[in-house]
Amino acid sequence: MTERWKPSATVAAIIEHQGKFLLVEEHTPEGLRLNNPAGHLDEGESLLHGCAREALEETMHLFNPEYLVGVYMSRFHRPAIADQAAQDVTYLRFAFGGTLGALQPARSLDAGIVRTLWLSPDEIRASAALHRSPLVGRCMEDCLRGQRFPLALLHTDPSVTGLPSGPIAP
C-alpha cells in the first residue's frame, strides 16, 4: 500500500490597519523571511481557533477572524542542506481577515519570530524576495481587492474538537 499524499494545512491572519499590513519577520533555513502571522493547523482545533492561536503566538495580540480572504495552495521545495534531507511540501492555506485585538504583554513571541512590523502594500511588494511564500503578497492583494467570504462557508464538525455543537467561535 502506498502512502496517501496529504497537503499541509495552514492558517494565516491577514491583518490590515490604516493602510498597512502586519507581518512577522522570522528565522528560516533560508535566512530571515517575512510572512503573515501564520502556521500549521493543530489537531483538534477549528480553522478559526487555529488562526487566532497562530496570530497570538506570533504577534502577542489577540485576533478575531471575521471573514475568509481565500483558500490557497502552494508548493515549496527545499533542496538537501548539510544534514537535512530535501523537502517537498504542498501547503493548503486558509487566510482570514479580521480585527487585531489587545496586546498580551505577559506573552512572548513564538520561537523563531524576530519581530512584528507594519508595512504598506508598496513595501510588501518591494520585499517579495524576502517573503516566506508567494502567498504573502497574494493574500494581501486579494484583501486589497475586497475579497471577503463569510465564515458561514466553514463548518467544523464536533468530532474534530470534541466540543458540543453550537455556533462557530474563534
TrEMBL record:
It holds the Pfam family NUDIX. Keywords: Hydrolase, Magnesium. Gene3D superfamilies: Nucleoside Triphosphate Pyrophosphohydrolase. The keyword Kinase does not apply. PROSITE patterns: NUDIX. Residues 4-141 form the Nudix hydrolase domain. InterPro entries: NUDIX_hydrolase-like_dom_sf, NUDIX_hydrolase_dom, NudJ. GO terms for molecular function: nucleoside diphosphate phosphatase activity; ribonucleoside triphosphate phosphatase activity; thiamine diphosphate phosphatase activity. Its EC number is 3.6.1.-. Transmembrane segments: none annotated. Its cofactor is Mg(2+). It is an enzyme of class 3 (hydrolase). Monomer. Belongs to the Nudix hydrolase family. NudJ subfamily. This is Phosphatase NudJ.
